[in-house]
Amino acid sequence: MLAAARRPVFRVAPHPAPAAGAQDRDVLHRRLSLSEDLTHFSAEGRARMVDVSAKPATARMAIASGVLRMQAATLARIHEGRVVKGNVLAVADVAAVMAAKRTPETIPMCHSLPLTGVEVAFTDVPADADGQPGVRACVAVNCFGPTGVEMEALCAVSAALLTIYDMCKAIDPEMRVEGIQLDEKHGGKHGVWRRSGGNA
C-alpha cells in the first residue's frame, strides 16, 4: 500500500508586539511612510484595497504589450490556419477581452471598473538571437472611472499570449513569453505617461 502523503504544515508568524515610547513613534512613522509610498498598504503595514470614492471619474486608457517567441514553423501554421485547435489569434483575442473584464478576480486589490472598450492587435516580430520569431500582442483598455486600467491591460496581454501557447504547445512546447509591459497610460492626476524607448 502507498503511504499516506503528509500534508504540509503552514504556521502563521505572530504579529510583533507594539513598541513602547520613542520606539513606538518610530514604528508608526515608518508605517505611515510605507502607506504613503505604496497605497495598497495601510498605516499598520497590512494590505488593503484603496478607497477611491473621493477621486473624480475621468477618461482612462492603458496600453500593454508582450511577445510570445516560437519556431518559425509554428508561426507559419498559425497564419495558415493549420493548428488543430482552431483559429489561434481569434481565440486569443476573445481571451484578452475576457481577462480584462475579470481582472479583479485575479489581482486581489484591483477595483471592479466598468470598462468601455478593449482593443486587441497582433503583429509578427522578427527573429531574435536564437532565431525565433514571435507574435506581439498589444491591448488597449478604456474606461471612465476613478482609477486606472493598467492591470486590466496587462492581464489581457498575458491571457492572449498564454492562449496562443495553450493552442500551440503540442507542436512547440519551447515557446517563450517575454517582455510583458505597460507601454502607455492616460487619465487621472498624472495625465499621459509613455514608456521611454518603448513601442507605444
Automatic annotation (TrEMBL):
Known pathway: Cofactor biosynthesis; molybdopterin biosynthesis
Gene3D superfamilies: Molybdopterin cofactor biosynthesis C (MoaC) domain
One Gene Ontology MF term: cyclic pyranopterin monophosphate synthase activity
Keyword Oxidoreductase among UniProt keywords: no
Enzyme class: lyase
Catalytic reactions of this protein: (8S)-3',8-cyclo-7,8-dihydroguanosine 5'-triphosphate = cyclic pyranopterin phosphate + diphosphate
Keywords associated with the record: Lyase, Molybdenum cofactor biosynthesis
Active-site residues per Swiss-Prot or TrEMBL entry: D166
A single GO BP: Mo-molybdopterin cofactor biosynthetic process
InterPro entries noted in UniProt: MoaC, MoaC_bact/euk, MoaC_sf, MoCo_biosynth_MoaA/MoaC, Mopterin_CF_biosynth-C_dom
Entry similarity comment: Belongs to the MoaC family.
Quaternary state and interactors: Homohexamer; trimer of dimers.
Described purpose of this protein according to its UniProt entry: Catalyzes the conversion of (8S)-3',8-cyclo-7,8-dihydroguanosine 5'-triphosphate to cyclic pyranopterin monophosphate (cPMP).
HAMAP family referenced in this protein's UniProt entry, alphabetically: MoaC_B
Protein name: Cyclic pyranopterin monophosphate synthase
Organism: Candidatus Dactylopiibacterium carminicum
Organism lineage string: Bacteria, Pseudomonadati, Pseudomonadota, Betaproteobacteria, Rhodocyclales
